[in-house]
């Protein structure tokens, strides 16, 4: 092995070790993940400077998909090219994928879906999503106009519960954002942002992203293969999520619960468990896939829901300098982000609250878990453990 190959192998191995350690220890959701990344990659190892990291985070917030996972991919790309991005993604994501597959297998084997601790996990989901909604609302709907866009999204989602309502809401909110905020003053966007990817390669990734988005539903209609239908549902959900992992909940719920792929109890039990594991919330798909079609389905679901995020980050990195200076794009995104808050509020009410909180005792328990998370600042794993134990005792 020559010197360059040894250096490349050492770099890739280093990326794998560090990203896996982060994947095993990064609790607390996407904002916390970004803090862990900053500490490890910027402050300790200096793989990126502060401005480049901030620009990368801005790009990943701009794109649909799991922002923290996309930041991790981008850092891996800067350090080790496309292969470095793949390894960084695997290290950060695989631990929680494995844990949720094991949980789904255990749940089905033990037949414990009606156990009290499972009901406790369902109430944990109420507290976690409520915390996420309020936090995002403060940041993304600071004025009356964006609050109104969020309200319109809530009403639309609750009154017209179809597979395409969310897509329509996001598109209309983008148009509203463009019309209302296109003249807003620009930020300082003078710095440049460079990655070792060609624009030709990036264009190929974007072509594949849109091609799959169009062709998978067609393939689903002309075949009877369950794995094609599963891949389409998870890929489409991963393609349409603006605002992070919590927003994928209503998309996945409407893809799989009304169609009979799994019960609402199974869905919410897994969502509660997903709060207890480190890493990105999108790995919840691995649990769903395992319930539907065993561990092979879990791996397929995880690959399908993360593939859009991977294609988008690789496809936009070389074009980011131009995109970030486009005021029209940034204005549209202001409207989209407000609609995301509305989608979250709708998801908080249905299916999460309506199917989990059915008595005063359950409401009181949900309030306790919310205060533990939002005001006492206890770690998510402690809230999940309290939910499970409390479910055994009082539910």
UniProtKB/TrEMBL annotation:
GO-annotated molecular function: chromate transmembrane transporter activity
Top-rank lineage group of the source organism: Bacteria
Keyword Cell membrane: yes
Principal location class: membrane
Protein name per UniProt: Chromate transporter
PANTHER family: CHROMATE ION TRANSPORTER (EUROFUNG)
Homology family: Belongs to the chromate ion transporter (CHR) (TC 2.A.51) family.
Any one Gene Ontology cellular component term annotated for this protein: plasma membrane
Membrane topology: Multi-pass membrane protein
Keyword Lipid biosynthesis attached: no
NCBIfam families noted in UniProt: 2A51
Membrane-spanning parts: 12-36, 89-110, 116-137, 149-181, 201-222, 299-320, 332-352, 364-394
Species of the source: Salipaludibacillus aurantiacus
Keyword annotations of the record: Cell membrane, Membrane, Transmembrane, Transmembrane helix
Localization in the cell: Cell membrane
């Amino acid at each position: 092995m020559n010197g360059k190959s040894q250096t490349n192998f050492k770099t890739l191995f280093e990326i794998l070790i560090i990203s896996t350690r982060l994947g095993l220890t990064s609790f607390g959701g996407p904002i916390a993940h970004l803090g862990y990344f900053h500490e490890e990659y910027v402050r300790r190892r200096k793989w990126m400077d502060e401005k480049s990291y901030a620009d990368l985070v801005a790009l990943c917030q701009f794109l649909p998909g799991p922002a923290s996972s996309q930041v991790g991919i981008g850092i891996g790309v800067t350090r080790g090219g496309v292969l470095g991005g793949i390894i960084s993604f695997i290290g950060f994501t695989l631990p929680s994928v494995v844990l949720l597959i094991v949980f789904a297998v255990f749940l089905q084997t033990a037949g414990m879906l009606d156990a009290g601790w499972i009901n406790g996990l369902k109430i944990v989901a109420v507290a976690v999503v409520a915390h996420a909604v309020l936090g995002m609302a403060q940041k993304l709907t600071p004025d009356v106009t964006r609050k109104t866009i969020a309200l319109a999204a809530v009403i639309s989602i609750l009154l017209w519960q179809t597979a395409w309502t969310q897509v329509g809401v996001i598109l209309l909110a983008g148009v509203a954002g463009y019309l209302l905020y296109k003249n807003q003053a620009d930020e300082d966007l003078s710095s440049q942002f460079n990655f070792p990817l060609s624009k030709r390669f990036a264009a190929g990734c974007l072509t594949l992203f849109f091609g799959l988005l169009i062709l998978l539903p067609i393939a689903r209609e002309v075949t009877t293969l369950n794995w094609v239908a599963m891949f389409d549902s998870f890929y489409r959900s991963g393609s349409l999520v603006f605002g992070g992992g919590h927003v994928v909940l209503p998309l996945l719920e409407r893809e799989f619960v009304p169609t009979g792929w799994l019960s609402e109890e199974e869905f919410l039990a897994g969502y509660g468990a997903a709060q207890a594991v480190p890493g990105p919330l999108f790995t919840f798909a691995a649990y769903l896939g395992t319930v539907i079609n065993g561990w092979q389905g879990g791996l397929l679901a995880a690959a399908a829901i993360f593939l859009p995020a991977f294609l988008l980050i690789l496809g936009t990195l070389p074009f980011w300098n131009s995109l970030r200076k486009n005021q029209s794009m940034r204005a549209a995104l202001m409207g989209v982000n407000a609609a995301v808050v509305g989608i979250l509020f709708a998801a908080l009410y249905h299916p999460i609250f309506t199917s989990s909180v059915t008595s005063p005792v359950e409401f009181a328990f949900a309030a306790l878990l919310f205060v533990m998370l939002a005001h006492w600042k206890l770690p998510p794993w402690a809230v999940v453990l309290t939910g499970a134990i409390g479910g055994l005792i009082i539910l």
